[in-house]
Structures are given as structure tokens and as C-alpha cells.
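Please predict the structure of the following assembly.
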Amino acid sequence: MLMSKLIGERTKENPSDAMIASHALLVRAGFIKLVSNGIWSLATPAKRICQKIEKIIRDEMDAIGGQEASFPVVMPRELWEQSGRYTSIGSEMVRFKDRTGRDLVLGMTHEEAAVHFVRDAVNSYQQLPVMVYQFQTKFRDEARCRGGLIRVREFIMKDAYSFHIDNDDLEKYYAKVYDAYINIFNRMGMKRVVAVKSDTGMMGGSVAHEYMLLTDVGEDAIVICPKCDYKANMEVAVSNRISKRDEISEEIKEVYTAEATDIAAVAKRLGVSESKTMKAVCYCVKGSEELVLCFIRGDLEINEAKLKRAVQKDIAPANLNASQELQAGNIGAYNLNVTNTIILFDKSLENQNNLVTGANKAEYHLTGIDMARDFKDIEFVDIAKVAKGEMCPICNAPLDVENGIEVGNIFQLGTKYTESMNMTVLGSDGKPFHPIMGCYGIGIGRALASVAQESHDKDGLIWPMAIAPWQVYLCGIRMDNSEVYQKANELYAQMIKNGIEVIFDDRDTSPGVKFSDCDLMGIPIRVVVSPRSLANGEVEIQLRDKTLKENYKCEDAIGKLKEIMGK
Amino acid sequence: MLMSKLIGERTKENPSDAMIASHALLVRAGFIKLVSNGIWSLATPAKRICQKIEKIIRDEMDAIGGQEASFPVVMPRELWEQSGRYTSIGSEMVRFKDRTGRDLVLGMTHEEAAVHFVRDAVNSYQQLPVMVYQFQTKFRDEARCRGGLIRVREFIMKDAYSFHIDNDDLEKYYAKVYDAYINIFNRMGMKRVVAVKSDTGMMGGSVAHEYMLLTDVGEDAIVICPKCDYKANMEVAVSNRISKRDEISEEIKEVYTAEATDIAAVAKRLGVSESKTMKAVCYCVKGSEELVLCFIRGDLEINEAKLKRAVQKDIAPANLNASQELQAGNIGAYNLNVTNTIILFDKSLENQNNLVTGANKAEYHLTGIDMARDFKDIEFVDIAKVAKGEMCPICNAPLDVENGIEVGNIFQLGTKYTESMNMTVLGSDGKPFHPIMGCYGIGIGRALASVAQESHDKDGLIWPMAIAPWQVYLCGIRMDNSEVYQKANELYAQMIKNGIEVIFDDRDTSPGVKFSDCDLMGIPIRVVVSPRSLANGEVEIQLRDKTLKENYKCEDAIGKLKEIMGK
């Protein structure tokens, strides 16, 4: 490839809407171009990186017996009605009508299509397990696109679906995919990827893991034990919270707390720690009048993902001004009279005593609440966020909380789709059963952007060799010099002949422009042919990660390049 | 790949809706599965064929300087408004709103996206020519899907867009693409492909060619001169029509023709040949009251594509019963009084005399019409279909008309998109100009189906080696025989080691099932390991096209396979 022909506008200025480095650098290097909110065109370098990522994934999927197929982008409503997701998924799924008025959708994921595909073709337990995968365009009408290719609306995803006789077989296979994913991210050159337990969300199912690239700009919070193996997405993370009960339970007393309504102010006024209070947090069920009232230890926060799972309904923050029954700022669980309200108590309150809580009356709180004495028949559920420093549920070491970008996920789906879509297979006993499914995803564009996020410096991108758009950036300095022209062209031809992927900067521009474009684009190896180096019969080879900068005899250059590339 | 694991249901029965062999066989072999009207899932073998076709196309596009990119499937209305096609394209383009109410479309083609992509990145004539291409999903809401993968709604297309300084440069590049396309179809193994001149349709532009696979089941009619190089799609084909003028022009006479209203009946009643009549064919302008009245020599047919271009409006057949002015069955050009009607005369009538035509009066016709004498200031346009046996416009040999499937197309677009989307580039004179564009398409699924259509027999598909899903079908007969089991597995491992793509039929089924599956799937080479062949230390190698069936020593098998594959 010649730089003089490469389509892509390289710029010095960061795009004004770029909040993270990978977004800014991919745009500045001319790798990606915005078409509409969350919709991008990819230029040749980005396309080449995607193809290399896809090749790595394909290798690893084939190695665990995957069969590559292709399911459609556009699917009929009927298919999604079979699984129930036509209605259960909200406005992030695009729906439209065709010319005859039939309802179609754009695929956000392909569980339904995968079951449709194998339903008739796999009839016997002897054919199991099978795994089918594809690289296919997905469209999700994200409310909040961000970070360039990190969170978009249209993207290519590798999605895979496996089918099993029983849960044991799924778990065995799940472990293989788990390892294959580790290989994939390693081979791409991602260094700080961890697999964490996660929520199953709209997929359904039970066990799930996310692969998280740890980075400050990540939107997900991950709880990690630095001592043992415990890692979990904040949405499902737990901690070991032992709070001691006071020896003596005081009596309940009503105390005047004036305008102190938030828990910090109340605790301060009464001279108690926040962990000795029970605060109320209120939500509503989406699209309904029903309220969800949560009580939790005052020093903790509600984890909305856990809360959703606990109430099994979609929730939103509540506007308490509209409530006749609740005294905002002074809500307490004791002597509370409400209707059409789900009430939940977090596990942190279990068996606690001498707690402060609202008196359900303006300007008053209660002290001396004893959960065991003052409440009957209440169940405690885990709806609290884990905070940094809390104790690991496995080994009791203080936990870390880090940020991460989700670069892949794997799910144990159970029979949610095979049951609802009526896929059966004959067992060894001759009886039909619903196979157990797993599903496994990696977004290609996000993987590209994640590597860019992890691997860059102030001058630009730094691609790992395995996925670099080209391995070598061949720089001719003073292309009007006939010796440079000839040697550079000769090296270009030699590199191509030797299977080295090279972009040749044949432009009639200054060394400064060429070097900065090379740095910005992040090509791992720079080879410079200049009048000065040629005077000694040499070329300069420099690595983008700055671990090498040396001159080599022209005739040794190809050999050195192959050595660097490990060919 | 193991046959025991391959997902795909092989059946003996043709699907009831399959009208052509490629459709029936691809379904019967389990290669494709219908999801909705014109929307298919591809199983592993079909996906592998597509990948090989894509590889061939990628090679040829790269060889002429193409840069692979990726434009989005979903695009904003604004982009298509810039070119004017948001309104000019009808209901075959899918339009929908996103969650914020913004209009989006599904890409049917990507001229707009390509101009958007290069518009800012290419600023100087020195960067031209450039060509960018992609493999991307298109969705066209076809009213009439047919033929399995031949005419569908969702499909992957290789589309390419080139940009040029001037028409000369475009024509030079166009010639390169023309040849690259010939290479592509040759390399895929298509034998009867011809490039023909074609209509530019919704793309705009002037010159265009279609690549047609000649086959009886093709929907397009192609005019071909068996002597010289003339080839054209019926939509634009012309012929050399010299009809002699009679020496003496008779007077116009009104004759009684009773209920003879169609031209055959009138000619018969009056004892003249149809070529001595002038018939009227009436259309209306779509969505308007305006009529289009065409006069043409009685033995010829109207070519609606030519007619559309002549009137530059979309047309539909007219219902003359509603007309107050026209006497259906007796319409004539002489003494005709009509309003709100476009009148056209086909070139076949130019200078003719002694013609029969309608008298604009029930039960009467006129004879003795002389176009030169009886009409003033009329222009003759070519709106006639070419018929088999007419004379070649180049060499006067009798023309053939054949059917074909369009497998690719190339267009000279001119500045339609660069002007409307305001893409300018600085010329060598420092002045901005609109680059000239070309665009070039190949549908991948249709290419696959076209090869299947051209290359099959009663037993199934016959894939050319270059795009076969696997090169070898390894058949173990009596896998319960330990010698067979061991030798077959050994050969399987050797083939993989030698880079031979092999599917291993390891199933516990009868030889008949295995052989018929192998034939149905169309794998070029069959290798059979059976107790009988092993008794002589041999395996049987048979080619799907029946040009070879012989036994070889086990130790020679890999060498023979490599020889067959030309490795």
C-alpha cells in the first residue's frame, strides 16, 4: 500500500466530542469516520485490524469445534415472538415494516436465529454438543453512544451458540470457551483483561462472565480481590460484611432532627456513624404506579442491577413529591403504612440493633431500632453495592474496585430459548428433551478500540504486531533523490516478496510529516531510507514502542525485520 | 470438519417452492435455510464458499489498487437526501425511525457513503484516481424474491467506488475493472459469463455493463451477435432494421375491419404483412393521468426500458376503457386528437409508406399511410425490442437472444454524486472540480447460486475446486472395522497436515447415504477407505465430475490428491 493513495485524513486536533484517547486517535489517524450518531465508516487500516482480529477469533472458535455460519441482519417478528423477546426488549431494538406491512427487526443478537438454524438439523443427542458462530452486523439503538467505537449502534460481533445434552456438558464446554477467550485477548495483545462474574441481563440464563479490559476510562465497575481469585462485575459482586450487634438494645425513641433529611446530616446531628443508620431509597416500577422502597445500612449504596433481579421488574428512580404516604427525608421502616409498594431490606441490616431511621413524620427520626426485635417475618436480600476496602467474600482480604471496558461475554443460557422455541432432540433413552444452550460474544470494533485505548502514547496509536494494519512503515526521505527513490522502491518490493505487510510513504512531504503520520498510525516498525543513511549503505529501523532504534546494512534489513516479527 | 458434527439437514425432496436447480440443491444439501421471504441463513459449507469467492474478489480488487473499507448498513436520511435518492428510490428502500425519531435507511448500495467517506480525505488531483471497496450487507425490499439466493432481500455485496480527474481516466480504470471482473468469474469457475452493455437504472450515469451468466433459467434477455463482439442487455440492445419503402405511395383509404382489433387479425383480414402496419401501444405515467401513446411497426414489440428513458418518467400499462378520446383497437396516428398525452413514434416507422393503422373510429382502419407525406415534424425514437434473427447493428449477422443471470455490474457514474454531494478536489490549475465516479458491484450469494446453477447434475452440486467448501470428502466405509477406522483417521490427519481442506464422513451410516451426501454436497474429490480397498492396501479416489475413478496405494494418496489440486 502506498501512503500517497491511502484514503484517510490525518489531523493534529482532537475531535471536540472525543472524551477518551482511543476515540480521538482513531479519528485523528483517519482510521474511522462518523456517519451518524453511533454509526461509523472504517477506513482501510481499521478494516485490516478488524480482519486480523476476526482471524484470531476464527482460529480459536474453530479449535474448539465451532462451525462458522451466517444468520441474517433483518429478521421477521415471528422469530422473536417465539422467544418472547419481541415484546420484552425495549426501544433499543429497531422494528419496521416491509412493503407488504410485515413486521421486521434488526438483529441485536442471534439466539433466535441460531435455534431456528439448528432446530431441524440436529435431532439426536449423538450430534451434541455443537457450536455455531458467525461474524455479523448488529444494530442496537443505544441511547448513549460514546467513546468512538467503544459504544456504538452498528457493529460487527462474533457471536457463538452452543447446544448440549445437559448442564455438565455445557459447563465443560463453557470452560473451553472461557480459555479460548483468554487466548483471543492475549493474541490481540490486550494485557489487562480479566474474566469476571456478571449479570445475565436480557439474555436470560444463570452463570455469565464478562471479559473486562481494566482501564480508568471504563464504564463498568469491577470488584477484584488482590489476594485470591475473586473477580465480579459490580452488578453481581458480593462482599463479606460482618457488622457487630451492640450488646444492649436500647428502646425506640423519637428524636427531633429538624431539617436534617439526608443520612449524612442525620448521623452528624445525632453523633452516630452512618453504619448505625437504616436509610430508605425509593424507586418505582417502570410504566406503573407501584413503588419499590429499599432499606439499607446508611453507609451503603443500592446496586440497581441486584435490585432489578430481586424484584424481577424494570425500575426507575421515584419522584416522592407525588406520594401521599411517604414523608421524603423521614421515611422509616417502623410503623410504616403504605399501599402498592414493594418493600425490601438489604442483608446489611440483618440482626442489627440501635439503628436510626426515619419516623415517617416531618423533622423526626427514631433511634434504638432492633431489626430482630422490632420486625417480624421479613426477608433480607442482597441489594447493596460493594465498596472498595470491603472484605472479599472468599478470603476476607480488602477488595479493590476498578473500572473496565467489557470486551467479551459468555453466558450459560439454560433452556430459555430451546424451550420457548420448542427445539427438541432425542435422548439416549429415546425421549425428546430441550438442549441446554450457551452463548458467547465479542464485538470486533470495540476490541479494536480497546487495544487502542490500552496501547497508545502522546504521539499516537501503538499496535501490537499481531493486529497491526501493516507491520512496517517504509519511509522514503527525499524521494526526489534518485538513490533514495531506487532503494526505497527496491526494499518495498523485497518486503512484499517476503510476505511483510508494508505501507510505503512515497509522498513528496517533509520527514516531520512522515514520522508523525507513522507514529499517529501506530505501525510497529519504521524503516527509514534517507540520503544520510544510504551514505553508509544503511537504513534505520525503529520500533514504535521505542525498544529499538538502530541502523542496519541495506542487505540485512529484510532479515532483521523478519527477526523482529518472529518469522 | 467431521460430517457427524456438520449442522445441515440433507433431504431427498425438492422444496415445493424451488423453481430452479440451484435453489433446490442448495436447500437439499443443507447449505442454506430460509428465515423469511428473501432472507436466508447460510450454513458452514455455504459460508466457506462465500469466503473463497470473497478472497478471489479481494485479490482482484487489490490488484487494481482497491482499498478495502467498510461503510455502514444503517445510514441517516440526510446522507441520501444529499444525492436526491431519499425520494427518488421507492419502496424497495427500507426506511425507519430511531428512538429519537430520526429517519434512518438500510443501505441498498453505498454511493452516498463512499462520497461521504472520501469527500474530506481526498483534496487534490494528485491523490486521484482512488478506488475504495467493501463487502457489506445490503437490504432491498424486493417485491419478487425468487430462485433461492438468486434474488433475495438481504445479501452481501462487494461494491466498489472509483474517483477520477476526468472521463479519460475513468475509462482507463473502467477497462481495468472490466478485465478484473472477467478474471473473477473465471477464477470462480463460471464458464458462460459475458459482459453486455446495460441500462444505468437508479444509479444514474451513462455507460454500464452487466456480467451475465448465460442460462435458460436467467430472467434477463441478452442480445448477442454470434459473428462479432456485439452483446447487449435487451433493455438497451439495438438492431439494424432496414425496411424497404414501396416505390409507389398509395392514397389513404378508410376500410371496414369489423371486430378485428389486434394487429394480427387486422393484417390477416387485409392480407398484408404485420410489418406493413403501424400499431399503437398505450401506457400511462405512473401516479398521473397523463398517457404515453407509442406507435411502432406492427411486427415489433415495445421495450419498456427504452421507453422509460425516452419519456424520462416511470410508466405503467394504461387502462384505455377509461379514455374518452381513444378508440381502443382502432387507434391511429393520422387525424388523432388527444390531450394530456405524450406521443412517440418508433424508429422502425421512419420513412415507411403504405401502412395500415387505426382510423380512430370503431370497426375501421386506414390504409396507404406514408410517414413522410402524412406527418410533419415528428421525431422517431428507438423504443423497440430487438428480436432473435434481426440484424446485428455492427456486422449485420442475425442476432441471438439468450437468457442470463446478472452476476455483476459496472457503471460509469459521471458527476451525479460528487456534484449533488458537493465533493470537490483541487485540479492542477488550482481550481476545484467534481471528480468523475465509477461504481462496480458483485453479489456474493448470487455468485454462489449462479455457479451452482451452471455446475450440477441430477445427483447434486458440483463445485469447482477454487470455491469448493472442502476439496476432499473422506469416506470411511464400515467405521466399526478397526483397520478402516485407523486408516481413515490417519489419512484425515495427513490431509489436514498437508493443507488439504477435508470433510471426514465418520458417521455410522451406510455407504449409500455417504456417497449420496457427498454427491449432493458437490465436493470435488471423494476418497473412500473401505475394508475391500484396504485388503490391497489401497484407497479409492473419485472425482465428482466423473473424470477419474481409480484405486491408489494408501501411501500415494496424499501425493495424488495434491496433483489433482495442482498443489
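Chain A is about 25% helix and 30% strand. The radius of gyration of chain A is 29 Å.
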